[in-house]
Hints:
Chain A has helices at 2-14, 16-54, 66-69, 80-87, 121-128, 151-157, 192-195, 203-209, 229-240, 249-252, 254-292, 294-302, 307-342, 349-357, 370-387, 389-397, 400-405; strands at 59-63, 76-77, 92-107, 110-119, 134-137, 147-150, 164-170, 176-187, 198-202, 215-216, 218-223, 244-248, 345-346, 363-364. By secondary structure, chain A is of the alpha+beta class. Chain A folds into 2 domains: 2-52 and 257-405, no CATH class; 57-252, no CATH class. Chain B is globular and about 80 Å long.
Amino acid sequence: MELFLHLAWRNLWRNKRRTIISTSSVFFAVLLALIMRSMQNGSYDYMIQSSVGLYLGYIQIHGEGYWEKRSLDQSIEVRSDKLESFTLLPNITHVVPRIEAFALLSKGLSTKIAQIVGIDPSKEDGMTGLAKRIYAGRYLQEKDTGILLGSGLAKSLGLHCGDSVVIYGQGYHGVTAAANVPVIGILKLPIPDLDNMMSYLTLKHAQWLFDATGRMTSVAFMISSQAELENTRSQLKRIAGEHMEVMTWQEMTPELVQSIQADSAGGILMLLILYIVIGFGIFGTIMMMTNERTREFGVLISVGMKRWKLITITVMETILISLLGACAGMIVGIPILWYLYLHPIPLTGEAAAAMYAYGLEPILPFSIAPGIFIAQTMIVFGLAVICAVYPLLIIRKLKPVEALRS
Amino acid sequence: MKRKLLHIIVCVLLFYSFSFAQAALEIIRKADDLMRGKSSFAQITMTIIKPDWQRKMTMKAWSLEPDYSILYISEPARDKGTVTLKRGNEVWNWLPSVRKVIKIPPSMMLQSWMGSDFTNDDLVRASSIVKDYTHTLLGREVYEDYECYKIQLIPKPEAGVVWAKVIAWISVKGFLELKIDYYDEDGLLVKSFLGSIVKSFGDRRLPSHWEMIPHDNPGNKTILDYDELKFNISVNTDFFSLQNMKRVH
């Protein structure tokens, strides 16, 4: 066996140029597949992270049945030491408590329905970057009793900073919630639906308004990466206690999951096309190589070389070539992807404008999840090995007389 | 001869069904007149019962049929002074704590009123059980010791009623509405409105205890107890104005 390997290795370097051509076809294939997949996965992760980072978070805890009924009556009491204990979990980067309810906002004769969210100003800003969205007035502070409004909502009510607005709705257990509050800031929220709906109070103020001291409707969590989702969810489930529902973003926004799946299906199709191109590229070089060597094979068989030995050596050559190419591809790919991961490609033009509109940085991010390297290298390596079947078939059926004449 | 006989039978049948419908309409009309009158004043205790909490409110209600009513909340303290005014299809609220009148927008009409099992829409709609339905007398039945007419009400297509079918039990003696069942398009019982504890209010005898039971929300119930009820009081439309809603008490 060692002899075969030795022979195969020597064969490779007998014709350096040929070997280098085949190796580089595998090398470029690996590199291309790596970059493509890394870009796709990177943008899905980015899409998920930025979508859930806008409001939902990766995971939320609610009172049992809250997600369906959306009522303050399903709110929960979470003591501050419990909130603290959540932050201590590994992978959790943000813990954001909220109290959310629908209410009417009224100024003069116009009345609009709005989502009132009671927030912890600094925690909320840490997760969603809410303070950056202020475009008039200022952001909430801990002791404020004013309100922040989405710009669409403010416009439809004709409100400006410094005006006051009446909130009227139903609090905890059906009590009347009514208050006259000053507008201290106007937010430009990226999604029109949010911009026309959202208004923010401090958590304490909202709890007072809804007669729900110490209560909240949800606690949202950001985690370090999508990969830790299930793991973190089960940890939270254990800590949260009874009568709580722990939901992931997939359960809360199935629409987002679907749009990512649709996009991912397109990506996989592109990847398949790439594999086909790559496969034929490798196949082409191997076919050429085999045809070039028909005479050599003919001579060897006529002088008494066993066909199976010849086949073994040729297959080993192909494997070695693929291995060389794949390793080289990975070695070159890792620093390139690492660089792109740290310096995502900035987008310009219409795509950038669309992303800006959603409040995202217009970039094309890359992923460096180890899974990508392993999977792509294995797939390309597999393709190359499949191509090795060709010389095998040729040698099996080779007629030495014809081969010598060719 | 045979044909003539058939003719007579058909006529008799038609007459019978017609007179049944007529009888049913008459019963409903009597019951409705008894309940409403031209105008009324009531003092009501409302108890909202949810699976894990309950709440009691007292209120005063003035109404001028068919378009006007005012509800003034006198307890609990947090809600005291809140007034709901219904004028035609519109609902307005007066909030004394912020001194402001708010018109309830159409999108909020299906929201619960004061946390009860009634919606704002229930306050406004109160479609006429006389005019908006076709009535059929299904027979007689004993309900809670009262001999009752059991009447089926099917909404007229143009009435804009959300129910597909309503069944009412009205006592033979006194024409009291004792039980009303509301069904949706799928034939499911959605809610029941039950009257009991018959009392004298002035010259009328009426159920004073009403329970509204939403069957799609088990464990929930809203109870109305009439502590006082007067009919044909002297109010006119001016009483039901945006200005006056700030003054009633």
